[in-house]
Specification:
Elements (H helix, E strand, L loop, with lengths): L8 E3 L6 E3 L18 E3 L6 E4 L1 E4 L5 E4 L9 E4 L2 E5 L4 E11 L2 E5 L4 E12 L2 E4 L11 E4 L1 E6 L2 E6 L2 E7 L2 E4 L5 E4 L11 E3 L2 E2 L9 E2 L2 E2 L5 E3 L4 E4 L44
Parallel strand pairs: 1-4, 2-5, 3-6, 4-7, 5-8, 6-9, 7-9, 8-10, 9-11, 10-12, 11-13, 11-16, 12-17, 13-18, 16-19, 17-20, 19-21, 20-22
Antiparallel strand pairs: 14-15, 23-24
Length: 276
């Protein structure tokens, strides 16, 4: 628990990422969720940052929230993976996140539950939910401007401005028919600003002006969702569909070039004729 005014700095590398997981390291426990609780971050005047981290097999990957009033800090996620969570991958209450080359996959509820407004920017990231332990009912992305707290028989509703939620060169795909929920509280006058740009989404096709240059409801052809391998196939519809977004290298350290693929991984051939 990174409490108020605290911060966490995680500095792994491509060759040696920092691992957050349960203490059972046997093969049978490698992909079992709910072995530990969560990383919980409150507000601070110092940014928290994760570089080359793998967070897996817990209940919630990262919970980031203000206790009273935000102090201007940002949670920065670079080249980070959050996998196999019993609940949410990322849960926020009025927070700020910047994510680059992020992979969030396989959770029992939403991969990202971003509540009470906030400010979010994710680029070159993959969000994929093929949860198979029990029935999943929640879409992989849930963005709202409110949070409801049950206080005995009374419901307390907290609202906040969604200042910005930008997703560029991203993939949102999973096993439900609709994987995107944009959820504005009916009685709220809060700002609700979002933009999906050069992204693939599994959701009923929309002419919403806040979806620009997007692909709808086409299977991205991941290599193997059963083993959390979200590299794309050579025939994937996301190949060369992005634009440069200041992330010249993918999650594997592969150079993207001028016509990058969507998502956290760039497709490359392998010399023996097989593909990532």
């Amino acid at each position: 628990w990174v409490y108020r005014y605290g911060a966490i700095q995680v500095n792994g590398t491509l060759e040696d990422p920092v691992m957050f997981q349960g203490v059972r390291l046997e093969q049978n426990y490698q992909d079992v969720p709910a072995q530990w609780d969560r990383i919980w971050i409150n507000e601070s005047d110092v940014n928290s940052e994760f570089n080359y981290a793998i967070i897996k097999n817990g209940t919630i990957g990262i919970q980031a929230e203000t206790l009273r009033t935000g102090l201007g800090n940002t949670l920065i996620l670079n080249n980070t993976q959050i996998l196999n969570m019993q609940g949410w991958g990322i849960f926020t209450r009025f927070y700020q996140i910047e994510g680059n080359n992020v992979l969030v996959a396989n959770t029992g509820s939403s991969l990202m539950n971003l509540t009470t407004g906030g400010s979010y920017q994710f680029k070159n990231s993959t969000f994929a939910n093929y949860w198979g332990y029990d029935v999943r009912k929640d879409p992989l992305l849930h963005i709202s401007d409110y949070f409801i707290l049950q206080n005995g028989e009374e419901q307390l509703v907290y609202t906040g401005d969604l200042e910005n939620a930008y997703f560029g060169n991203c993939i949102f795909y999973g096993s439900l028919e609709n994987e995107i929920l944009l959820d504005k509280y009916p009685e709220s006058n809060s700002l609700f600003n979002y933009n999906f740009d050069y992204s693939l989404l599994k959701t009923p096709s929309t002419n919403d002006e806040f979806f620009t240059n997007c692909i709808f409801n086409k299977d991205p052809l991941f290599d193997s969702t059963q083993i959390n391998d979200y590299h794309i196939d050579s025939l994937s519809p996301v190949r060369s569909m992005g634009i440069p977004m200041d992330n010249p290298y993918d999650l594997d350290g592969v150079e993207r070039g001028e016509n990058p693929d969507l998502g956290a991984y760039q497709w490359v051939p392998i010399a023996d004729g097989k593909f990532w």
